Amino acid sequence: MNANIPSEVLPILLILIGTIFSLLSAIGLVRLPDVYTRSHAASKSTTLGVLFILVGTFLFFLLEEHYFSIRLFLGIFFVFLTAPVAAHVLVRSAYRSNVALAEESVQDDLKDFIHTDSKKTKDAEVNNTD
Amino acid sequence: MAFQILLNVFLAFIWMFIKVSFDVSSFIKGYFFGLIIIFVFRRFFGSRFYLAKIIAALKLLLLFLKELILSNIAVLKMVLKPKLDMQPGIFAYRTMLTKDWQITLLSNLITLTPGTLVIDVSDDNQTLYIHAIDIADVDEAVKSIKHTFEKAILEVSQ
């Protein structure tokens, strides 16, 4: 039993760190002022939280059951591939549908770009609804 | 690059046929000798020696993991600060990358690094519009970080 304790410490620590990251990103979702800053917390901290939890699970099954589960690494790979894209698409569609930035915002370079080609996008929308 | 890898696998198979031993260890041995042969003949290929590219990709992966952990610590500090005094904003960033997959990779990396989030890519693929969570002090640091990212991506793709 004593021999098992050191092999359990690392997975426990990793899963604990992952859980703390996920909790803090949830707190960030509540505290931050607008949709853009919230998606910062959502896209980064949950990704790292999932990474730590899955690596901890992988190590636990490797050390305790001697079971090498490559699927957990595939899960990490897919989460890393899709989470930033999901955050990007959510924020982009929020900006295109004129969701306002927080009052503290100081700079908005995208506004000019959107306004110069808003006519184009409107035409595209009309074409899409037809 | 793909051609060099294919050639290396082919040389490994040739080694297996020469030795008439069809198992994993002789494949690995043949692959190693093929690697040496390709290294010796590297100036006859159009692109660089492919192991250099793989090492560049691994460096990019390590850089990315480091930035990911640093960005999370930055976000956690910001979330747990008793007073929310950040200045979010959107800035335009001109990129020198041209291919679609390079821009996709760069925007994924930017999204997962400290305080930045890609909102939009312009139609001509030259400008990225990035939302920074604290535009006052992050702007310069972020630019240098992205120059290292861009350099690493160019290193992988050349």
TrEMBL record, chain A:
It is found in: Membrane. The chain crosses the membrane at residues 12-33, 45-63, 69-91. GO terms for cellular component: membrane. InterPro entries: PhaG_MnhG_YufB (IPR005133). It is a multi-pass membrane protein. GO terms for molecular function: sodium:proton antiporter activity. It comes from the Bacteria. Pfam families: PhaG_MnhG_YufB. The keyword Isomerase does not apply. Keywords: Antiport, Membrane, Transmembrane, Transmembrane helix, Transport. The keyword Calcium does not apply. Its main location: membrane. Belongs to the CPA3 antiporters (TC 2.A.63) subunit G family. This is Na+/H+ antiporter subunit G.
